[in-house]
């Protein structure tokens, strides 16, 4: 199988290294808007570089991985599907909700498999939490808490085009809550704050936010995010049930210092998402290889991504308008 990779920036370069080691993938062809960067990554990893992203569509590919900046996702995904290429696309499918809906309408019924990159579905801790819930081991679930705390903010130039904290960051927590519980979100109440760099407020965004999600069975879930957690990169998901409680992401590298007793983390904290989810990123691409080869159905089809986006959109509306928002309000 010959797999193309569009985009070899920070996450794309990591994907390139993973793809070359997957059984059944004989060749990886990489491309980037910066052709020099594509050639550099190809030379380092022993891959082939195409003369630009456009050239991937005439490279005899069997599948395409899309890891470009968000603005290019929608067009590349539609083109891949129209060309009959199974596609893996990093979230989000498109830059905003309206375009996401249009993309899904364009590819619906094509029969071409698409997988969206919500890597937490492949994190061992999140998968184990899901099993604990689905098996009934922890009883009925009453509370879920999921957090994404970045150690430092992204570059200033990224903020105005990110879509906002809930759409860009907390959408991962939303998908994780849905994935682990197997429930849908009925309504949200969200709030945000700015105590850091002025670029967030200037962009209509927030640097810290939390949302209370009421699930369709009455379970309460809280998702929290911040761009300022200097202690380290912290992603955890806690599930509290009538019989037991479990947590994903709490280990000897969790950046929390106990006070008044307890044991401090033994190892250094994770520095970012690429390190924290290295195993999950590799696992999702191995899964995509099976999808592309026709051995498995997509573990995260674009319809799943859209549902998470609806909830993130509802959170953003709730934050701006300071009210509870039913997810049905934003559904297209």
The CATH superfamily name of the largest domain is: Dihydrodipicolinate Reductase, domain 2
CATH architecture of the largest domain: 2-Layer Sandwich
Kindly report how far apart the N and C termini lie.
37 Å
| CATH fold annotation of the largest domain | Dihydrodipicolinate Reductase, domain 2
Listing every helix as H and every strand as E from the N terminus to the C terminus, the arrangement reads: EHEHEEHEHEHEHEHEEEEHHHE
Continuous helix count: 10
Cross-sheet strand order for the largest sheet: 12-11-7-10-9-8-13
Strand portion: 15-25%
Outline the low-pLDDT stretches. Answer: none
Number of domains: 2
On the 0-100 scale, what is the average pLDDT?
A: 96
Label the overall shape.
Answer: globular
Number of strands: 13
CATH structural class of the largest domain: Alpha Beta
**Overall helicity:** 25-40%
| Overall radius of gyration | 20 Å
Major sheet summary line: 7 strands, mixed
Classification by helices and strands: alpha/beta
Organism: Actinomadura vinacea
Protein name: Gfo/Idh/MocA family oxidoreductase
Family: Belongs to the Gfo/Idh/MocA family.
Pfam families: GFO_IDH_MocA, GFO_IDH_MocA_C3
């Amino acid at each position: 199988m010959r797999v193309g990779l569009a985009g070899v920036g920070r996450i794309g370069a990591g994907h390139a290294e993973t793809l070359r080691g997957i059984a059944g993938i004989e060749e990886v062809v990489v491309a980037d808007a910066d052709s020099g960067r594509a050639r550099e990554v190809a030379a380092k990893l022993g891959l082939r570089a195409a003369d630009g992203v456009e050239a991937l569509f005439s490279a005899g590919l069997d599948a395409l991985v899309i890891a470009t900046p968000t603005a290019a996702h929608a067009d590349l995904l539609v083109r891949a599907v129209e060309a009959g290429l199974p596609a893996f696309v990093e979230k989000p499918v498109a830059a905003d909700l309206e375009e996401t809906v249009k993309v899904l309408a364009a590819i619906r019924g094509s029969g071409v498999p698409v997988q969206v990159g919500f890597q937490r579905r492949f994190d061992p801790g999140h998968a184990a939490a899901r099993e604990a819930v689905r098996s009934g081991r922890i009883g009925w679930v009453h509370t879920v808490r999921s957090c994404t705390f970045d150690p430092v903010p992204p570059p200033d130039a990224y903020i105005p085009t990110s879509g906002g904290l809930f759409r860009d960051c907390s959408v991962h927590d939303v998908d994780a809550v849905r994935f682990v519980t197997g429930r849908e979100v009925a309504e949200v109440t969200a709030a945000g704050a700015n105590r850091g760099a002025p670029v967030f407020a200037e962009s209509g965004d927030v640097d810290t936010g939390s949302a209370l999600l009421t699930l369709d069975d009455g379970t309460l879930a809280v998702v929290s995010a911040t761009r300022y957690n200097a202690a380290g990169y912290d992603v955890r998901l806690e599930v509290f049930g009538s019989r037991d409680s479990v947590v994903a992401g709490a280990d000897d590298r969790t950046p929390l210092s106990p006070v008044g007793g307890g044991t401090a983390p033994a190892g250094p904290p994770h520095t970012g998402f690429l390190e924290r989810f290295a195993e999950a990123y590799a696992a999702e691409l191995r899964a995509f290889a099976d999808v592309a080869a026709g051995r498995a159905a997509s573990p995260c089809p674009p319809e799943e991504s859209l549902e998470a986006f609806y909830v993130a959109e509802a959170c953003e509306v709730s934050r701006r308008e300071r009210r509870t928002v039913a997810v049905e309000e934003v559904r297209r």
